[in-house]
Amino acid sequence: MAERPSAIGQALLAISDQWTLLILQRAFLRHVRRFADWRDELGMSESVLANRLKEMVAGGLLRPSPYREQGRTRTEYLLSEQAIELWPLLVEIWSWERRWVPRRHGLPELVHDACGKRTDVHLGCASCAAAPVTARDTGTVRGAATFAQVTVPRLHRRTVRPETGDPLSYLPETFEVLGDRWSTVILAAAFLGLRRFADFQAELGVAPSVLADRLRRFTELDVLAVEEPGARPRYRLTDKGLDFFGIFAFLVDWAQRWYAGPPGTGLRITHRACGTAFRPCLRCRSCGEVIGRTGIRFVPHDGEISR
Ligand SMILES: [Zn+2]
Ligand SMILES: [Zn+2]
């Protein structure tokens, strides 16, 4: 099929990769912009890093910029406006992992400069100032071909690394979902109300073996639960799965701001309470104010392991 993917499909093509997300994360948190610094921060092989940087430049996420060092011209990579807009998605990933995924090494903590508190975030509606907004507070309408045009071939093999001493690189369950396009699409379909194996299969056009594998993994992760086992199993989102809606909402919002899909592939999330197209924002759980990109800091965990 020559037609280009939906906006969400294009967004997933650009960022649904563990290394890409980690490269972005380090650029945000540590202001990394040079090859050697990403390599050393992330322990990546040079060939994989070079490949990802090239893709991220081609995809408009990074902007190469020359600089002089010891008489030679080298390249550093600056976040594009498009990439900078991914910051709340990364904060929401941090928040979800912190809430739901057990770990040995605590994630860094978020400090909101305005109130000075170590805090967490709530998903909010940018239109009506409600927070928290959950999946249950929203309605979603999709075009007939939204899913048919999401599935583009996966570029990179899915690999989830074991927990090492570096807590920032260990976001295992997010990477399982966002690092694999079928997983993202299946979870998105669950948010849209799909429940039965046969419905996922028919609507997504996914091979039964792939679908069975991803649904099994989601139940292992306690993101989905089997409601009616048997020949025609029915699934439901658990609280943990429903809470992934924040990440999904920022992904959809970003995708729709930066990509255009063919007709009939759109997706519209509405905040029921105010009736507007849902634009997510982050609010501080301590003071309730909207959080801006430059008004927060991450500080090392104080040693006590969360959860
Ligand atoms: Zn609203
Ligand atoms: Zn605050």
Helical content (DSSP H or I, runs of 4+): 25-40%
**What is the CATH C level class of the domain at 86-299, in words?**
Mainly Alpha
What is the typical, i.e. mean, pLDDT?
88
* Topology order in helix (H) and strand (E) letters: HHHHEEHHEEEEHHHHEEHHEEE
Ligand set: zinc ion
Shape assignment: globular
Strand order of the largest sheet: 4-3-11
Radius of gyration: 19 Å
CATH homologous superfamily identity of the domain at 86-299: Winged helix-like DNA-binding domain superfamily/Winged helix DNA-binding domain
Strand fraction band? 15-25%
- Tally the helices: 12
Summarize the structure in words:
With 307 residues, the chain is of the alpha+beta class. The protein has a domain at 86-299: Arc Repressor Mutant, subunit A (Orthogonal Bundle). Helix content is 39%, strand content 18%. The chain has helices spanning 7-15, 18-30, 35-42, 46-58, 81-84, 87-100, 172-178, 181-191, 197-204, 208-220, 239-243, 245-258, and strands at residues 62-69, 72-79, 109-112, 118-119, 121-125, 138-142, 224-228, 234-237, 267-271, 280-284, 296-299. Strands 4-3-11 form a three-stranded antiparallel beta sheet, with no helix packed on it. Strands 1-2 form a two-stranded antiparallel sheet. A hairpin with a 5-residue loop joins strand 3 and strand 4 (118-119). Helix 1 crosses helix 12 (245-258) and helix 6 runs antiparallel to helix 12 (245-258). It starts with 6 loop residues before the first helix and ends in an 8-residue tail after the last strand. One zinc ion binds at residues 125, 127-128, 130, 271, 273-274, 276.
